[in-house]
Amino acid sequence: LVQAQAASNMYPWDDWYAELAAIMCVLRLEDACRLPHNPYIPLLEPAIVVHEGDFVLGGQAGHAVLPRGLHVRGNLVISNCDALQVLPELLRVEGSCEVTNCVNLRNLPMRLVVMGNASFAGCRSIVRGAMRIDVRGGLDLSDCRLLPTLPRSMRVDGNLDITDCEALGRIPTGAVVCGRIRRGMTVVSGVEDMNRYLQAQAVVTFRHPLAGVWRPPPDFRRH
Fold it and tell me: What does pTM read for this prediction?
């Protein structure tokens, strides 16, 4: 891999950057190659910092600024860290990834690769989802109440938990979940079944709690 260009030798578009960086991360080419810098979009080819062993961060730790690219060869454990607001854009974890109850965390990694289980349970302020997710175990997103979307480029080999993900409307077509998907007490066996359940739930909650079918107010305007 020596060159990355779009049509007519233009800069790769912003969503291509994450894909190209993901290829370099998986093939371990971060040190040998660099993506061309597009001056019109943020730089998305951060240097990858390799951490040997487990990476543990918790409580009111002052060291709450992580590198833009992080490769943890052990487990990543971050819990109850109120100072943590941003995760690395590229995050690869050889073991399990547990980032839990970080109430001020605002984003998921743009590219997430986890060889074990991954959990972001209790991170209620996440408002920016990932562009690509590969998790070899299960993925727990319970109580991520502001998480708006999941990526179309997502593969979870284990179970997926989206309990109390109130802002999440549906799971994109193309996402792969090999295990079961849980939302509260409801457990289904596929993305299509979960999307049908979410659609039915949205219709039910659109009804007035007392009068049956919801009626628009007199000053309601259809746009």
Answer: 0.71
